[in-house]
TrEMBL record:
<feature type="domain" description="Aminoglycoside phosphotransferase">
    <location>
        <begin position="49"/>
        <end position="264"/>
    </location>
</feature>
<dbReference type="InterPro" id="IPR050249">
    <property type="entry name" value="Pseudomonas-type_ThrB"/>
</dbReference>
<dbReference type="InterPro" id="IPR002575">
    <property type="entry name" value="Aminoglycoside_PTrfase"/>
</dbReference>
<dbReference type="InterPro" id="IPR011009">
    <property type="entry name" value="Kinase-like_dom_sf"/>
</dbReference>
<dbReference type="Pfam" id="PF01636">
    <property type="entry name" value="APH"/>
</dbReference>
<comment type="similarity">
    <text>Belongs to the pseudomonas-type ThrB family.</text>
</comment>
<protein>
    <submittedName>
        <fullName>Phosphotransferase</fullName>
    </submittedName>
</protein>
<feature type="region of interest" description="Disordered">
    <location>
        <begin position="1"/>
        <end position="20"/>
    </location>
</feature>
């Protein structure tokens, strides 16, 4: 059974939650008893829960999600409510649909073998290739930017009691997790992260003044499903588990982080600029947002290192998945620290809001 570190302070939530993974046979019974669905199950690698792809006898595809015991019912209702809101605002946006259980509820509850309460949901499965498993050209990356902008607009006006949770992956709270620096054993890495934290500390008051709303907050390559044969390219946006009320600039920065080159490059934003151009075709960013976005990308590099190094110690059996994107972050962080804050601020300021 996976055990959390009791010395960690509050706020890490289900990222530190202990649980015993549910076996596919047990998951299959949960699916049949609660949602009236049966089929073959394939487990997905995930950060903190049990997630399975379900293929029924008729070929229909669904996603079965059995939450971490530390995930609150309200948190999952928050995610489902976002999906319903987005569907109502932009029915053509490719997001999962919520599947109700046999008793008409979106979320059902089970007790696992350890006696822990686990909340269960089913969503439709969006077919395609995860962007992390393929490549993209500039035109396709502009499509990614357009779809992110559409998602922001579709989420406008959404409110929920859970929206203001303090979530570690939301970089507006980076300084709350500075204590994780103590978990970094390599002195060179620790020094680089300390410098990154100080860079963020300097801009934190400006971040507080940015426009904000409920946003996806994890527009990563693993959460974008694509099809090279489709002119729209993006076939699905998945995993709303990091959604939170945060700065618009943070949401964009997260998307650009996930376009940073895996190997050292003179311009870390050469792919992200394509995404930004597509985004600005659909909606606006202020001059202040454009100036802060590169700093927020760096902040996301820092928080990724802090959280993954800490969690890899907690859950060594899941280290491969947890650390899958961390190694490339060291050269990315070095690139940011090699440039002055003013140089970082100027990286994207040549862009402007869409005309008309």
């Amino acid at each position: 059974m996976m055990q959390p570190d009791p010395s960690c302070s509050g706020g890490e939530g289900a990222l530190a939650g202990s649980y015993t993974p549910i076996e596919p046979d047990r998951a299959r019974k949960v699916l049949e008893q609660n949602f009236g669905l049966s089929g073959t199950l394939k487990r997905f690698d995930t950060e903190k829960d049990d997630t399975f792809r379900v293929k029924t006898g008729s070929g229909a595809l669904f996603v079965l999600k059995i939450a971490n015991p530390d995930e609150d019912h309200a948190e999952l209702d928050f995610q489902n409510s976002i999906l319903r809101h987005v569907q109502a605002r932009d029915q053509n946006l490719p997001v999962p649909r919520v599947v109700s259980s046999g008793n008409g509820r979106d979320i059902t509850t089970i007790t696992d073998l350890d006696g822990q309460t686990r909340h269960v949901r089913v969503l439709t499965f969006l077919e395609g290739t995860p962007l992390c498993e393929t490549n993209s050209d500039p035109a396709q990356r502009r499509q990614i930017g357009r779809i992110l902008a559409r998602l922001r607009l579709a989420m406008t006006g959404f409110t929920h009691p859970w929206q203001d949770r303090v979530y570690p992956w939301d970089v507006q709270h980076l300084l709350k997790f500075a204590h994780l620096l103590d978990e970094v054993e390599d002195p060179t890495q620790r020094d680089a992260l300390a410098q990154g934290l100080e860079r963020y500390r300097a801009i934190a008051p400006r971040v507080k003044g940015l426009r904000r709303q409920v946003l996806h907050n994890d527009f990563s390559k693993s959460n974008i499903v694509v099809d090279h044969g489709d002119p729209a390219f993006v076939k699905g946006i998945i995993d709303f588990g990091d959604s939170v009320n945060t700065a618009i600039a943070i949401d964009v920065a997260t998307a650009l982080l996930n376009q940073l080159p895996e190997q050292p490059h003179d311009d870390l934003f050469y792919r992200g600029r394509d995404v930004l151009e597509g985004y600005l075709e659909r909606t606006d960013l202020t001059e202040e947002e454009l100036a802060l976005i590169p700093h927020l990308v760096m902040a996301r590099v820092v928080v990724r290192a802090l959280l993954t190094l800490w969690r890899a110690k907690l859950f060594p059996e899941n280290e491969r998945y947890i650390m899958r994107n961390t190694a490339q972050g060291w050269h990315q962080l070095d690139w940011f620290l090699a440039h002055t804050p003013d140089e970082i601020s100027a990286l994207l300021t040549q862009y402007s809001a869409p005309k008309g």
